[in-house]
Every structure is written in structure tokens, then in C-alpha cells.
Amino acid sequence: MQPRPLARQHRYITWLSLSLMSFLALMVLIVYESRWVYPEIQAYFSQTGSLTGQQLSTRARVYLQDAQSELLSDQPEQEALEAATMDIDLAYGLADMHIYRREYACAEPSLTELDRLAALLAARDIDRIAAAMALFAPIQCLTHIEMDQLDRRGAAINDFSESTRQHSLVLTYSSLLIFVMGLLFWWLHERQLRRTDRATQETFEWMQRAMRDPLTGIGNRSALHQDVLAKQHQSLGLILVDIDFFKQYNDAYGHPQGDTLLRQLAALIGKTLNDKAQLYRLGGDEFAALLHCPDIDTLKSYCHQLIEGLREADFMHPAHPDKKGVTLSVGGSCFVADEATFPYAYEAADKALYRVKTMGRDGWQVTEDA
Fold this sequence. Notes:
alpha+beta; Alpha-Beta Plaits; flat; transferase; Diguanylate_Cyclase; transmembrane; nucleotidyltransferase; transmembrane helix
């Protein structure tokens, strides 16, 4: 290797110095920002930040108001008392929070009253008017909790907004300084930056081709297509799975519980299919399974096992319109793996799944002429 020219050595030393300075400035900025932002975000989104508290108290209040409506309605007494008892139990479950008992004096008496009222209704030892009147105190308590939580959230938002505004000034000036240093670095080493840009672009493209679903750990849509191409000329079965009324499940339990259900179903599908299938999450609440399938009867057996396995698992679904637990709609098709045949197999399985949905969901169909 020829000796590096003196001018290039000088530029290299300059580049190294600027790189170290930029890195040091960035590290200082990141440490400073993390030490400021993390406690603010933690305080804002914690239990005391009132986001969860307000939602639970609101839902509990609505259930109690529904119970009053049931008690004062014209429907038969038996039906009214049963509906009201269910609403009171739901409200009790939402209001029975440690933070409520600790911070609100009315919470403990209200929960005691709801417990007593539920027992009286179960024993048919109280008339409907008296029961409806007895609900006013718990409703008033929950309204107080709801308003207090809303006030707390407003105060937290204002504090967070003010802190953000002040911190943004420091962040802007610091970013400007780093930007100027970056411009100087670019001026000295344009070719090095071009190579860095290409490497960054290649890294970004590689990340886009990542084959795993981050929530469930199973494959994604790209992985499904790639795995089909890797199994050229093999007889395969494609199963599409859609969770029935998943939006209503999220509305009832919240998105974190919905994510938990997705992970549980991914594990259940793999276990039910005896770990013979490769699993994929295609997005939202839709899954796919790819497995060796010598004939259509084998595929039907897998679909049947899947539905029965879920019924045995008996996942609760409080908002299911048909009063069932979590149910699935399943569609399947057999095909010989090839880039040209896969789209038709996918369309056939999707049509089979759609037929299940039009027939009332909670079942499976297989397209035999795919």
C-alpha cells in the first residue's frame, strides 16, 4: 500500500476529530433527553396519570345506569332483575380497584352497597324501584371519581405540554449545533458519506424484508410468500384464519388484552396442528398456516382440529354477539407450490373463509377445486 498523502492524512485526522465530537455531543443530548423525557412520560401514562382510572370508572358508571334502566323498564320482572344483576356485577368488577379504595372515601361504601344489592336481587328480596334508588349513591361516587380523574389528566397534560415546550428550545439549539457539525463533516468527506448512505439504505431494505411478526413472533406475509417459493412442486395446504368479532373483543377488553389473545391464538394454532404447520400473521386478526397436505381430506381434518381445539380452549369473549367465547372463521385450499399457483390458492382459501363468515362464522370451509 502506498503511503497516504499528507493532505489526506490531515483530512482523516480532521474527520476522526469531528466524528468523535459529534458522537460525544449526540450522547450528551440523548442522555439529557432521556433523563428528562422518561420520568415525564412515566408520570403521564402511569395509573396515577388517570388514563386507565377514568376509563374504568366511566364504564362502571354506564353499567350501573344501564342497571337502573333495566329495573325501571316495562319488561318482565325476572328478565329485568337478571339483566340488572349482570350489569351490577360488571360495574363492581370495574370499580373494585385498589387505587379507588385508597384515594376515594366513597369507593368502599359504594362497593359494599353494590355487593349487598346484588345479593338482594339474587334472593329477590328487594323490589325494582328500591333497587334502582339504591344505585344512585354508587353512581354519584363513580361520577365523582370520573371527574377527579379527568381533572388529574388535564393537569398532567398541561404540565407535560409546558415541560415539552421549554425542553424543545434546548433540543432545537443542540440539534442545530450538531447539524452544523454534520455539514462540516459532509463537506470534508462526501465520498465516505455516500458509502454510509448506501450502507444505511441497504440496512433499511433488509429490515423491510424482515420475516417475523414482532407481536406474535411468527412469520409475516413476506415470509409466507418466500416459504411457498422454497417448497416448489410440493403438495401444500393453505389455511386462512380470521378471529370473529375481534374489534368487539378489543372494545371490551382493551388493545393490550387483544394483543395477548393474538399471541395465545398463534400458540394454540401451532399446538393444534401438532407443530407441523408454518404459521404467519397476515395483519390485524388474520393468520395463515402452511403445511404439507397430500390430499383434501387431510386439509379438512386440520381445519376441523383447529375449530375443535379453540372450542376446548374456551377463550372468553364478553362482547360476542352470539354469546359465545372466542370463535374463528377458517378457510382452506390445497395446491402444488409454485409462484404462479399460490395466488389462486390464496384466493380460493379466502373465498372459503368468506363463505364461512356469510354462513354465520364459527366454522370452516375448504375449496376443493383450487
